[in-house]
Specification:
alpha/beta; two-stranded antiparallel sheet; five-stranded parallel β-sheet; 17% strand; Rossmann fold; 8 helices
């Protein structure tokens, strides 16, 4: 690369770095996490068994769940659970809204990959929001075990939020 091209490239990189540093937002997760628990009918037993296995750890956090799942978890753990609507009746959307507003820190969503759901669009929207806001999420027991045993579940954790400024300021 010739020296002029190098200078232009270097200036462009500096501008990009300055822009990205200016717009960074961080979110801090407290030690006591706000955990969303969701399970499709064919996965409720798996989630309940997993929750019982992790009863002590889950007791250190605040739990929110969709309707029936919340009732089952509350009974199994003898721990309060904020129960929203049933998933197909709006519960998945309620959790999605809580993700978007920063009111959920971690998602455990045991969904059934082998059966179509009448509310597939809600399920997809919830999963998309969890990814869009960079939330830790587990959709199966193995990943849930890895996530639950992470040291970050037991301590404060700060992470960078995605920057959607460009998307929000686009020309329509």
């Amino acid at each position: 690369m010739c020296s002029i091209a190098k200078q232009i490239h270097h200036r462009h990189n500096l501008k990009s770095v300055k822009k990205s540093k200016m717009k960074k937002n961080f979110r801090k997760l407290e030690r006591r996490k706000k955990i969303a628990l969701i399970a499709h009918d064919n996965k409720k037993r798996d989630l309940i068994e997993w929750a019982i296995h992790n009863k002590i750890e889950l007791s250190k956090h605040s739990l929110v769940a969709t309707g029936t799942t919340g009732k089952l978890v509350e009974e199994a753990l003898d721990q309060p659970v904020v129960k929203l609507l049933s998933g197909p009746l709006g519960g998945d959307q309620q959790i999605g809204a809580m993700i978007a507003t920063g009111d959920i820190d971690v998602v455990f969503f045991f969904f059934d990959p082998m059966e179509a759901q009448p509310h597939d669009s809600d399920v997809k929207a919830l999963l998309r929001l969890a990814v869009a806001w960079n939330l830790p999420m587990a959709c199966d027991r193995t990943t849930a075990d890895f996530l639950m045993t992470s040291r970050f579940m037991q301590e404060e954790y700060e992470y960078e939020l995605p920057n959607y400024t460009h998307y929000l300021s686009r020309q329509i």
